[in-house]
Amino acid sequence: MSTDDANDDSRSDADGGHCSTADSDGEVATEIAIIAFERKRGTAEEITAELDDRYETIDIIEYHGDVFEEHWGEYDCFIGLMASGIAMRKTAHLLEDKWEDPAICVVDEELTWAIPITGGHHGANQVARDLATMGAVPAMTTASEAAGKQGVESRAKAMDAHVVNGDSTVKTNLAVLDDTLGPVARLDGPRAVLVGNDVTVLKRNSDDGCVIGTGSVSGASTESFIAAWETALDRTEYDVGAVEFVATATRKEDEEGLLAAVEELDLGLVVFDRETLLEHEGPTPSKSKELIGWPGVSEASAIAGSAERELVLEKIGYENEVTVAIGR
Which residue ranges does the record assign to the CobE/GbiG C-terminal domain (predicted)? Predict the structure, then answer.
């Protein structure tokens, strides 16, 4: 949804129209305000048209000296269509807590650079990636993204979960950088868990959906992945909207067709290492275990990632390129 009202003072926490705090639980930002000078309004409208279907709200607000302060707390993320220095000077005094502050991503009028300056893991990095579809280079400086690794906040988003104890991510993201964190462990309850300040707790947003487990031959196409998943879902009670995430093996995480498919369907991707998949091996025999020591990827990853750790659809193949199983 988009609005042209640059001076709408009717928004309030009471009307439920906007979040009273920023994206403090690790989920992607959903309500965006583009702050732009009047002369750059055309570019702001182009951004709105491109990103409109990816967010619940995108509003265009004309820039003035107190614009950020006036709308602070109404949006998950601000896109500043301006020099980064302006956005930094006008918001510095408003910043209090990384888990409470709205994310801010600045972009130039030529859409050359998209630069997250606050809340990288809480919406700004995602907005920068979305602006990349318009040609902007996402200049992300958060350590895990700069190193090409998936931080714990990104893992939470991919798994349709949120971070419960945000302060812990300082230590766990350092472990990500050092390649010592390992896969996300799943604990089924009811049970009580005592954790230290170096353990990040992720809580699912919903347990009603399903998980797509998938494997493939090397070089499988985007179209084959999507067609395989849709074919598998058609054999269950679920549709794409009910998919929590797609799961696969670490050895498949760089498959270009897979990455493009999850992006096209706006799904998260979770990868599991060999040891985790061996613990959740599915019922269908797989030659890969004999040849390379890996269990069948599609069933094992569907079981490992799903809430109840059970299959609603055992492995099926598509065009000798992609295998799929569905877990819940």
Answer: 211-326
